[in-house]
Design a protein that fits this description.
Largest sheet: 3 strands, antiparallel
CATH architecture: 3-Layer(aba) Sandwich
Number of domains: 1
Order of helices and strands: EEHHEHH
Distance between the termini: 37 Å
Protein name: GIY-YIG nuclease family protein
Family: Belongs to the UPF0213 family.
CATH topology: GIY-YIG endonuclease
């Protein structure tokens, strides 16, 4: 049995300073898709400028739970977390 690949939570900073959060197996590939307009509808109208944060999780379920928790945070708390951990 093969070892499961890790999943990642990622946070993008988009044009205008907004944030987009998602999960992916390959963040670099997914970021490129967002930049080419092949990602989420939101990033088609708010082009991503950079990856602010990536966090590795052991599986998709854990990454999705973290995504849900991050999205539930007030914007001020999201930005504080990014300032501490996201560069």
């Amino acid at each position: 049995m093969s070892t499961p690949r890790p999943w990642f939570l990622y946070v993008l900073e988009c044009r205008g300073g907004s944030l987009y959060t998602g999960v992916a197996l390959d963040v670099a590939r997914r970021f490129a898709e967002h930049q080419r307009g092949r990602g989420a509808r939101y990033t088609r109208s708010h082009p991503p400028e950079r990856v602010r944060l990536t966090i590795e999780f052991p599986d998709k379920s854990a990454a999705l739970k973290a995504e849900h928790a991050f999205k539930a945070l007030p914007v001020r708390e999201k930005r504080a977390l990014l300032a501490r951990h996201g560069g």
